[in-house]
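Technical note accompanying the year-one report. For the benefit of new consortium partners, we illustrate the data format agreed upon in the data management plan: each record pairs a sequence with a structure-token string. No post-processing was applied to the example shown here.
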Amino acid sequence: MRVAVFGAGAVGSYLGSRFAAARADVHLIARGAHLEALRERGLTLVTPEGITTTSVWATDNPASIGPVDLVLFCVKSYDTESAAAQLEPMVRPETMVLSIQNGIDNEAKIAAAVGEGHVLGAATYILAAIESPGVVRSGPARLVIGELRAGTPSERVRRLVEVARAGGIDASAASDIRLAKWEKYVLLVAFSAVTAATQLPVGEIRLSHAASAMLRAIMVEAWSIGRALGVPLRDDLVDRQHKLVLAQADDEGTSLRHDLMTGHRMELEALQGTLIRLGRETGIPTPWTDAAYAVLEPWARRNERAAR
């Protein structure tokens, strides 16, 4: 299998390494200091199993790769449309484009560029960060993959799951990827809001009754909106996701918190902004998400100005 990882940051680099471990021919698309380090020194992974360094093929030019069987589309949500416009040289009739992104509406934007038939959705559970250019610290990954239209998992989805598992990813096929993505969104929209707004990791959130309550309240808002939109979210989802977040290691955080604190652009609109918009459309109040957004928007604007 020939694989391109579009947006080989922390998550993309780790997933690319797992597909390479499954004997896929992997090409990383990165930029900046991380790209230079990948080219010069290879990719160093820091995982619970130890530290490894391997040589990788990396570029900043998608067109130089040529057609592939799979694109792991890992760019930040605010870059979805501009990155999707660069997919064409890598896409042939059978190419799959798998969105490995935060948020719940990226697949439609990718489909607008390459056609819905190429696009698959995923719910990705992984905690990873770039420690320094070329060095990624990551825990294990869980990946739920599915076609955009609900139904029995297709042959290509089942084949992709097999390859991912061969590389050590806890992968599974979903009959309803919209449901799987909303289950993750309920968790992430709250987890990211509270860790970013407090600028603290989960251990400190766990110790604060008020912060833990806010975490759960935002999950309830997201769950309520999902149900109003017809997503069959289970009654106990909020309890399960709240417990899952608080069970993470003390020093774990989210990419939204990391981006705020390191001066990078933030996915505020794809996460909290989207929930607020959907709340207005469904008539469901989102006071807790509104409060988090009000705290985070000045940071998002500041970081975006600095990135120009």
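Partners are asked to follow this layout when depositing records. Residues 224 and 284 are 8 Å apart (CA to CA).
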